[in-house]
Amino acid sequence: MVPMVRQWSDWIETTALSQWIQTEEWVVPASQSIHILALSVVFGSAVLINLRLLGIGSAHGRSVSQLLDGLLPWIYRALGVLLLTGAVQTIAEPLRQFGTPAFWLKMLMIPIVLGLTTAFARAVRRNPARWGSAATHPTGIRLFALVCLGLWIAIICCGRFIGYSHV
Known about the structure:
This protein is 76% helix and 0% strand. By secondary structure, it is an all-alpha fold. It is elongated, with a radius of gyration of 19 Å.
């Protein structure tokens, strides 16, 4: 393990906040439960959007623009909850988080998929009529949807591997 990461983790673990989180038996399980619920909201919303881009569920559904208007606020709010609950879990067990390559991979993929989602949302808002039917979607949108779905699945998998292998 990189010595700096170990020192940083050790320092965080000795703070009063970390000690309090570790000694209060309800904090970590409550944080983990809320984290999983928020992740479900983000992933479920992302799946609905990307399946729509893949042409699944488009026959009688809302347009891509309408779907984004309804689901993006849920995604962004749930991401805020994920940030808070993830911080609690990291403060409680910093070495478990920082000492795992899966954590750093997850932290790399999150801004990538958020950047892709934000850029996509801007493109849809600039020209919502273009997103009314699958026939008018730009070339490559299916690949975009598959990449985004793959990133979200990889993020979830990395979250499950945190703590199982140390650097």
